[in-house]
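Pilot study result, target chain (210 residues):
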Amino acid sequence: MFSTTAAIIVDLQEDFTTLMNGALPVPGSDEHFIQETAECAAALKAQGCRIYGTIDWHPRDHISFYTSHPGKKAFDSIEIDGHSQKLWPPHCIQESAGAVPLVPPGLCETFITKGRNPRFDSYSGFFDDGGVATGLDDILRQNNIDTLLICGLAFDYCVKATALDAIRLGYTVIIIKELTAAVDPDSAEQAQQELTAAGVCFISAASLLF
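Predicted structure:
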C-alpha cells in the first residue's frame, strides 16, 4: 500500500518539546503528542511505509541564535544578506541533550541533519537557506518515493518549509495535521493558507491508517 510513500518526522527533538521543557518548546508538544506521532509512524512502517526523520544539528555559534548577535534578544528579527532572519534561543546544539530525537529507536531508517552550517538557517529538511541540499531528496529518489506524509515540529516553520520544498521537487505531499504543532496561531493560519495554495493536502491519522 505504501511502497512509494515515505513519512517524514520533522524535528521531533527534546529542545522543541514541552514534554522535555526544551529550550524552544512548541505549544502542544506534550507526552500525548510524542506518543501519538510514534504510534502512527509505527503503524505506517508496519504497512510498508519508509520512515525518515529530520533534526536540527546546530553549531554553538549558529547564525539563528540571538547569542550570536550582541545586543539582540530572542525572537528579534534582523536583516542578513538581504533576507529577514528571526533570532531564536540556542537550541539543538550538536551533541547536546536538547538535540536528541524523541523517536523510538529503529523507527526511522535514518535522520537527516540540517542547520549544520553556522552561516545559514535551515527550516527545510531539503535545503538550507544557502541552497545547499541536505541529501534527503537523493535518499527518497533512490528508494522510488513519490509521496510524502509529513508531521512533526513546528507546523508554521520547519514542517511548512519542508512541505513547500517537497512540492517544488515534484512530490505529492500530505500533512498529518494533528501530528503537527505550531509556534504561533497567527503564523499557523498563514502557513495553512500557503500550503493549501501550493497543493499540499491534509489528512487525519485515523483516516490515513484506517
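One observation from the pilot: Residues 126 and 135 are 7 Å apart (CA to CA). A full batch analysis is planned for the follow-on phase.
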